[in-house]
Structure formats: C-alpha cells, structure tokens
Amino acid sequence: MPKLTLDDLAKIREKTKRLTTIRVGGEYRAKVCVHMGTCGIAAGARTIMNALMKELEEREIHDVLLTNSGCAGLCSREPMATVEVAGQAPVKYVDLTEKKIKEIFEKHVLGGKIVQEYALGIGSEKTDY
Amino acid sequence: MAEMAKEKAYRIHLMVCAGTGCVSNNAFGIKAALEREVKKQGLENEVLIVTTGCNGFCERGPLLVVQPGSIFYQQLTEKDIPHLVEEHFLKGRPVKKLMYTPPKEKTPVPVLSDIDFFKKQVLIALRNRGLIDPEKIDEYIARDGYKAVAKALTEMAPEQVITEIANSGLRGRGGAGFPTGLKWQMVRNAPASNGSLKYLICNGDEGDPGAFMDRSILEADPHSVIEGMVIGARAVGASEGFVYVRNEYPLAIKRMNIAIEQARDYGLLGNNILGTGFDFDIKIVRGAGAFVCGEETALIASVEGRLGEPRTRPPYPAQSGLWEKPTLINNVETWANVPIIIDRGAKWYASIGTLTSKGTKVFSLVGKINNTGLVEVPMGIALREIIYDIGGGIPGGKEFKAVQTGGPSGGCIPKEQLDLPIDYESLTAAGSMMGSGGMVVMDEDTCMVDVARYFLTFTKDESCGKCTPCREGTKAMLDIITRITEGKGTEEDLTLLEDMAHAVKDSSLCGLGKTAPNPVLTTLRYFRNEYEAHIRDRKCPAHVCRQLNVYTIDENRCLTVGKGCDLCRRNCASDAIRGAKNEAHRIVQEKCIKCGVCYDVCNFGAVKVD
Amino acid sequence: MVNLTIDGKKVQIEEGKTILQAAAKCEIKIPTLCYHPVVEAYGACRVCMVEVTVRGKTDLVTACNTKVQEGLDVQTGSERVLKARRLNVEMLMARAPAAEPVQELAKALGIEKTRFEIKDPQEKCILCGLCVRACETIVGASAISFIERGTERKVMPPFGEPSEACIGCTACAYFCPTGAITYEDKYGRKVIHTELHLGPTTAIRVPIRQAVPMVPLIDTEACIHFKTGECKVCTKVCDREAINHDMQDETLEVEVGTIILASGFKPFDAKRIPAYGYGHFPNVITALEFERLVNASGPTGGKIKLADGTEPKAVGIIHCVGSRDENYNEYCSRVCCMYSLKFAHLIKEKTSADVYDFYIDMRCFGKGYEEFYHRLLHEGTKFIRGRVSDITDMAMTQREEGKLIIRVEDTLLGTVRRIPVDMVILATGLEPSIDHNQLAKIFNISCSQDTFFLERHPKLAPVSTFSDGIYLAGACQAPRDIPDTVAQAGGAAAEALALADKGTFALEPVTAEIDEDLCAGCQLCVNLCPFTAITYDKEKGISVVNDALCKGCGTCVAACPSGASHQKHFRDSQIFAEIEGIFVV
C-alpha cells in the first residue's frame, strides 16, 4: 500500500486550500465586516466577532470573508457589522447581540435574505483603499 | 491517511517574511512580538502567523504581508508591533506609516500588488513565495503542489513528460541555457552501463557574489524543487537524487531537510510513490564553499567525495556523470519550473518570453539601486524596465553607468544598451551572459577598471587551479589590472591584458576560466577610455582608485567656511597636512599616502580630489 | 575506424582513440606536459591544445583527452593554437622557472623570457597532477592530493603530515616530469645486506642476470598491484600482452620412469650464532651475500662496498660458520675453504683492503686447490688459525674505533687476538635443503645421521637410493662442490638412462601378498612397510600390496595379526616343509 493515494492528495489539497483561501483571494460568497473601533469594542463588538468566528468554524465555512474595520461613525448604535453578499449591495446591521448576529449569519450570509428588522440601511462608507 | 484534524480557520493570516535577509533583520523577533501582542489582544484564535520564504523585496525588510488584502508592511521594528496589532488586527485600521512609500513620493502604497517593485514581476519559479509556510507540505499541496507529479506519474509516459518540457522551451537556469528537454532526452537515451542506475542532481551551489536566487527558492518553496526532481527522475528513469547545497545556506538546508522528511512521510519520496510503483529518493549533499563546484563536473566530483575540480567534457554528465552513471543535473530554478510546466502545459509556458528564451528568469538585483531584492521577470523584458521600473532607479539621483550580469564571470553592460532585451542570446552578444541571474547595478561613482579588478580577484581566488590558463592567467591579469589601478600601467599592458583575456577564454578547461575574462573584455569593450585615462593621464575618472587621486585643500574655503577646523590634520595618518586651527590647511603631496581620510572627514567640502 | 585530417594529413585510427594518439600515428608532434601514456589524461596544462573543426564549428580542445571523430579537421599549429600555447607555457615559466621540460618547450616555441612575475626561481612543480593521479589510479594509495585553490594549489599528503597511506613506492617521483618530487632513501645501503634479493630494485626484474632463460618475473611483495589491486601499468606498456597478474602456482603431474633428486642445500643460517652479530651489524654479511655484492650484475656492479657505500679497508673471512662445530653441524661443509680463498683473492684484486682468513684447518684437497692456497699466501692474505669467538663493535683502542673487532685465539701463537676490520664475511656451511625431510618421505628414501639423503652404498652405489629408479645428485646427498656435483649428476643420469633405456624392470620375485579373505583391514602393515608398498583399499576394507614397490623384506608378514600377509616363495607352509625336509634327512 502506498502511503498516500491520489485521493488522499486531493483531499489534503482541498482542505488546505479552504484554510488558506484568504491569502490568495478568490471566490467569496460573502464578506462580513465587524466595526471594531474603541466604541464598538466597548459596546461588545468582540462578542459579535467571536460569535461569527464560531459560526464559521462550526459550519466549516471558508468562503466567507470576516474582516474588521474602525469606527463607522455611528457610535451610539454599536456594535455594528456590514454584510456584503457577493453581487449585492452591503447591508449595515446595528445594535447587535450574539443572538442577532447568529440569525443574520444564517439568514443573510448563508441564505441571502436581508434581516430587515436589524438593518440600518443598505450601503457602506468608502475607504481610501 | 490518518483522519484529518478538525479544521481551524483564521480570519487574518500574517505572512512574516523569513528569508535569510529578513531573518538577519530580526524577522523572528518581529514574529515573536506579533505572537505576544496577538495573544495580549486575545486574537490568537482569529489571527494566524505564518513564516514564509523570501518575499523578494529584501531592501525593505523585515516584511509582513497581511491577508486578506495583501497589505504590505515594511521595515518593521519590534516596537511598531503593539500599535500595529491593536490598530489593524483589532480595530481594523491599517497603519499607514509602516507601509511602503516610493522614493520621491508622499502617499504610501498599501497593497503589495500595487507597488512598482512587484507590479511588473511574473512569478513562476517563485509562484509560492510569501504565500505558504515552506515548512508545511500541506500548504504547498494547497497551491496545486504535487499535482504535476500525480499527472506525470499516472497520466503521462516518461517520453511525454520529456516532450512537454522540450516543447515548453525551458532552458537551464544555471547560466549556460542548455535546452532542458534535450538534456533530459540525452539522459533517458544514455545506455545505463552496469545496472540501470541513473542519478539526478539539483545544483544549489550558488556562489556568485550578490546572487541568492537559488537560496530563496530553496528557502521559500523547497517542495517545488522536490516535485520537479521526482518528475525528472520519472522521465529519465533515475532512482536517486542529490540536492547539492552550499553549507553557507543553513536555512535552505534546514528547510530542504524538513521538506524531504515531509515528502517521505507522505510517500511522495521513497518507494512506490503515490501507488505507482515508482521509487525515488533524495539526499542532501552540502558543498564546502568552493565556487568552482557550481560547475557540473566539479560538483559531481565533490558529491563523490573527491577533490572538487572540473574535468574535460565530453563525456557529459548525461552520458557519464555521478559514479560514471548517466546523471541529470539541473539548477534549482530549473527544477522549480518543472512542476508548473507539467501542470499547466508547455503551451502556456512557451507563451511567456521571447522566441529563443521562454518563461521567466529570477534575478537578484543588487548594487547601486533603490529596490535591492529578488525579482522574477519574463524573458525579453528590457534591462531598463528591471532597473528603473522594478528596481526604482539609482539612489541619490546618481547616473546609471553599467550593469553587470551573470555573476563574476559575466560582463558589464553600459548605458547605451539599456534597452537590451533580457534573453540568453542578447546577453551573450553583448559580451556578458545570463549566468545564474546576478545583476549588479553600478552608478557614475564606479570605476570600471576597479570593477574588473574586483571580479578578477574573485575568480582568481576561486579558480580551482587545475588548468594553467585559469590558475596562472587570472592571477597575471589581476596583476596587470592592479598595476593599472595603481597608475603603473603601460600601453603594452593593455595589449597584453587583451591578448591574455582572449587566450584564457580560449584555452581554459571549464566554464569558470572560459568566462573569467568577461568582466575584463566587456569593460575594455565599453569603457576603454577609462583604462586609457588610468594609463595615459594617471587618473581615475571616478576617483575610486585612490593611488591615482590627488588630494588638495581649497585654502580659501578651508579658512572662510571651515575656519581652519584642523580636523583633517588631526586625522591624517601620514602627517601630510600642514596648518593649525583658524589657519588655512594644505597637503604636502610628497608625504600624502592617498588614503582619502581628509576627504572623508572634511565637513566643509574644502578637500578636493582630482 | 575513424577518418580525420591533422594538419592536412589524412589519418585513420580506431574509434575511441584521442587526437594525440592519432597525431602520433602520422608523426605529428603535439607538445604535452601533464600527459603520460599510462595515466588517465587530465587536460590541465593546456599546452596540447589544438584547433578542431567539426561540422563547421571550430574550437580549441586538448589533444590528450579529446576523442577522434569522423571528419575531424585538426590544426596543431594555427595562429590561435600557438597564441594560447605560448601564453600557457610563458605562464608556466613564471610558475616553475626551474622546470626543465617547460624551459625546453618555451625554447621550441621561441619564448626567451617570461613577462610574468616569478615567485620562486627554484620552483619545479607545474601542478600537472601526474603524481596525484599516479598515486590514486595506479598505486591506489591516494596518499597525496592537491590542497588549496588557484595559485595557492600544491601537492600534499593530508594535513601536510607524513601519510600512513603512502606505501613508499616512489611512483610520484617516477611520474613527475620536472623532477619536483625527490625522495630520500632513509635506509640507504642497509637494505642491501638484510635480504638476498638486494635492493633497491624494481618489482619486475630478471632475478639474476645469468639466468637461463632470461625471463623477468614480478616480485609480488614489491609489486604495487599485489599491494593495492591497482597499477597494472606493465600490462599497458607491454605490446605482446605477455603479463598476466592472475597467474597462480599450479601443480603438474608428470609420469616418469626414473627420478633424479637434486634438491641441493641451504646455507647455514648465520643468525643461529649470535656471537657473530649477523643481522645486527650491517657489515657482517654471509658468503652468499658477498657473492652477490661482488657479482658484476649485482646491485653495486661488482664493487665491494660497506653499508655506508665506502670501500672497506680490512675484511675478515671466518671459516667453518656452522660447520665442524658440535653445537651446529659436525661435518665439514667441504666448499667453504675454497670459496673463502676465492673471496680473499677477489677482495685483494678489487680493493686495497687487508684480508684476514680465520680457519681451523685449510682443506684444499685435490688438483690445483693447494696451489691456489699458496698463491693466496703470496698475495698477502693473512691466515690466522683459530676459531673466532665473537665479533664486537666495542672499541678498546683508538685503532678499533668505528670498526668491527674479531676476537680470536690464534692457536699458532697461543694468544687471544683482537683484529679490527670493516667487513666480516661468514663462510657459512651447507645444510640439507629446507624441505629435505618431506622429500625423503615422499620418495621413500632414507637420510643419514647428518640429515643428508642416504645413498644405497657409499662406494658401490653412490648415486642410487634404496628405492629403485630414484637417484641422487649433488649437495642433497652430502656437501659437495660444483665439479663433484657435475660428476655425480653425470653418474646419476647414466644410471637413470640405463634403466629407462631397458624399458622393463625386473621385479623382486619374493614379495608379500595379502590374502583378501583373511585380512581384517587393521592397516598395521600399511604403517609398517618401509617402502610404502602397502595401501589400504577402502572399498574392500583390506590392505593391498603394490608388487612393484615391495622389496620382500617380510616385515608385514611377521607383523600381520591375522596371518593374511604371506611372502611369496616363503610361505609358512613352505618353510615348515623345508624344515621337515631337513629333519627327514
């Protein structure tokens, strides 16, 4: 028996590829940006980020890009997050909790349906790069 | 295969450059600081720190590339790290002051691919640089690694593999540019005398001063070399391979060892590779630091444990090499090109480059240039593009004078030929050569006679001493050039030098001697006036050859601007300066030993050199 | 066969040959320095460079290791060739100004003086590597190699220390074309006196010049091939392919009718008499060694020399070494007196040395011998009657300083004398040859008390033995000089021929026979038979008598416990019948 078959090799490739997609770019189904300015962190952005990380990990999802950004300027409504499903306009969610973000993840990120009740509006601020 | 471990995903990957250049600039200190800070901010489950091979932009090390987004941070220090981690990774605000700002510009360029240095590069041999941890085989596999081996072993006949390589137009990247496919065919066709043993060698004895292409590949992507060798072994029917790396490359040796171990663990080396029944294994042989061992017959002698000196070819190693068996010997970069050619096809590869020179070439860009580093460019690119677009031009607003390609045995190409396309034939026609890819840029402050002297000193020291012309000739030529730089040269010396250069080139045994006169011949060809200035006028136009310099003090300036600071007199080693504080100083020429210290120490530009 | 052109001359030569060999074939000389026909070509000196054109491509190559190709056009003296060659020779002149072959080559190329810097005017080494290659590929010792690089390159044993790998064959010096390697023979002449094949010499040689047939042999103890398995240079230079290193000793079986034993003698081993210091003092030598020394084809060309190469001023010859001595051999060796006289004569003839002969009795019997003794007395040889007690180098007077002192009781003067000499020749006696006892066993012949072969009868059958058809000649029977040996050999040959000529052989009628039915196979008779006439037949389990060997001595008959052995014509019944007959009368 060989130590490694062609199938094994393909399996390793697929798995590691998923884990390292973010290095080379590629097809993302969605991008989630948690706003993590001082205000955001104070309001609990960490829990939101952690919840999202957990979701990705448990579901073994690798084609969702999870990023963070600075203060979005709407400090009173923190924690906030922007969800951008590929091909669609970004949606900003405000006053998030762990429960809310889980729901958003399932319905919007995976399901593609905007969760209207938590959303602030459609669109996002521009960055300079 | 064991059950795969639970996948752990991170949202940020920090690609810390751990090439030799960055490592010597404290890359591991940066890495430790990153780990510390990431932990402190509680990000250890979100941020993955990866050490990669050389990124190429060595001038700006230590380097860090943040993924996703390819944000390029450079010239980091440990004290930058806490701020960086907090701002960028925690709060999502990239730190502009740590980004790269091109010279003469004000706004930083945050994304790697937007930086001029990287923009024009085409990465084939260096395809995985900065993207994988070279010590993790899985990451190489993820980059379609070992896909070509699978293809070559299961879907292609050995002849097909050779045809594919031949059709790709790949030529030896070690310098001479021998068509790789033809070489493979020769080894495959070579009748294996007594037994069917054939050997494979990877030549990693990179000895050119200022060249580090092979080191970089071995450090950044050792598996690409291993994969290339397995494919080559299959194609020619070899069962054992050797990677010859110079002992001065400890990191490359370490990473190669790890890579070989991992490949063995996965059964990608050893017996019955991928269940195809094909056996092949690789050993590392460490070179003991002789430049001549980069020559294939000398290298083979060295692997065999004999004195590293070349022998006459034919027979070529393809016919009778290691232990007199047919041996396929290719350079590191050549091997690294093989898997991607098999994977993506000869047609794709042949579409890059010029008519006779296909694909890309890695150059190490050094000398008087802004962006020192490792670049991979398509064949046929103009020298000007490499030096000005990628290299960012000459520092300090100085003027470009020449570029020396092909290592110590290459030649100097002058300004007039800046639009020369880089390929094997053009470089040879210009009197230089591709070599293994060293590129030393020289500016107006460089004396070309001194350059020839420098490279001759190197080849003289590195000549193995076997054949007369190389051993005695390099020494004799060096004596003449030294004489010229000391202002003792005559017109006859110039004729003798030229005659000798031709004779040494003509009658030396191996490539070292045959090319050693190249720096002399090209500088004579393009910069003869400088030689003549040294001989006729006893002047070094670039003021490099100190024995020819005349140092004087502008007494007026000394007194009025410098107020007779007396610094020069106190520093003069030969007590040749007369004067006292608040007085104008002057140099007694008879006593001056032309050390140049007065010129260097004068803060008021009062010391003149002529 | 490959066709090529050299300097316009057409040459045909076997494939695989080099341009240099092809040039030699059409008598075009290409200069070489690092080339030697028996060492693998190296291509380092680059003076054999020639310009070759093949398939429209012209290049400079080394003639010594470039193989010929069909249609090759070679120029050995083109402008380009000469330019490169001259420069290389000129540079070698600077490297090794004292190397004669380089000087000669330079002269031939019209170079008078080198333009390059001379480092050491005494330097001879041109770094051609012949010594290194010879040591590695021919000797197989690899005791020397190049160290350092470039102009610093030099030939050295590892770490510049005397190498254990060196077998002292001096092949490096032999192959050195410029004489840069010299060697010092530390043991000097001492070697000459300790062995019979007196060195220094080569591994292949004709052992003795007067040998017939004059065929050289390989001394396996000195031959490099038998030490390291390499070399075999001799096979490369021998056109007749006459050298075979795989030859082994073999046993030949020859059927003959008669045998003459002439196994000769061995000289008495002088080391058995420690008092004479043989083996300790280099200038104490045996008669045979002196014989070799004085021989015109010997190592010194016949000159009589001491171990340090000087001529002796006084020589002592000691008679009866190992002969006429109760401690060693009681017999007189018969030849020593006469050869000692000959030595004395030769020493007198070739040197001006004083010669002392120490004798017990002068035994110069026979025609002309006594006369020779008288001549010696007139020549001034000093004869001292007395047995030498010992030889010492402990001087008691200034005259004895640095000399060998022979202590002897002069029985004619009745005093003990000390005679200082430079060289002592021990007139060693004769002893039966080394495997004498074994031979006696094989041929079933007897030895006398002095261990020489015993003849059948000292007066009536001096060349015969107790075994029919086996004869003796020469010193194997008794100490004997050459004339006696030749005479006896003639007699033995005549006896042997007489028997062979007759073609038939009358067997002894009275022989033993063994009754197969009675023999128990105890093999008692086999061991008892003095003529090895009885053998044991394993298949039948009985002893069998060979009629041709049996002499009818009756030993077996008397000894046979089962009464199976009978003597033909002398059976028990016959003997009893005879006895009865006597009583009847």
In short:
Chain A is of the alpha+beta class and 129 residues long. Chain A has 4 helices and 5 strands, in the order αβααβββαβ.
Task: Characterise this structure.
- The complex is a heterotrimer of chains A (129), B (610) and C (585).
- In chain A, helix 3 (45-59) packs across helix 4.
- Chain A is built from 4 helices and 5 strands; from the N terminus they run αβααβββαβ.
- The model of chain A has no long low-confidence stretch (mean pLDDT 80).
- Chain A is α+β, with helices and mostly antiparallel strands and 129 residues long.
- A 5-stranded mixed sheet of chain B has the order 10-9-13-11-12.
- Chain B folds into 5 domains: 12-119, Glutaredoxin (3-Layer(aba) Sandwich), CATH 3.40.30.10; 137-331, Rossmann fold (3-Layer(aba) Sandwich), CATH 3.40.50.11540; 360-443, Ubiquitin-like (UB roll) (Roll), CATH 3.10.20; 448-537, de novo design (two linked rop proteins) (Up-down Bundle); 549-609, Alpha-Beta Plaits (2-Layer Sandwich).
- The termini of chain B are far apart.
- Helices cover 39% and strands 14% of the residues of chain B.
- Chain C has 585 residues and is α/β, with parallel strands linked by helices.
- Chain C has 4 domains: 2-108, Ubiquitin-like (UB roll) (Roll), CATH 3.10.20.740; 129-242, no CATH class; 257-505, FAD/NAD(P)-binding domain, CATH 3.50.50.60; 512-584, Alpha-Beta Plaits (2-Layer Sandwich).
- In chain C, the strands form 9 sheets. Chain C has a 5-stranded mixed sheet, sandwiched between helices.
- In chain C, a hairpin with a 4-residue loop joins strand 17 (404-410) and strand 18.
- In chain C, helix 10 (336-350) packs parallel to helix 11 (369-379).
- The radius of gyration of chain C is 36 Å and the shape is flat.
- The model of chain C is unreliable at 186-200 (pLDDT under 50).
- The A-B interface holds A 1-6, 8-9, 11-13, 15-20, 22-25, 33-38, 41, 46, 49, 53, 56-57, 60-62, 65-70, 129 and B 1, 4, 7-9, 11-13, 15, 42, 45-46, 67-69, 89-94, 110-111, 131-132, 138-139, 141-147, 150, 154, 265-268, 270, 272-276.
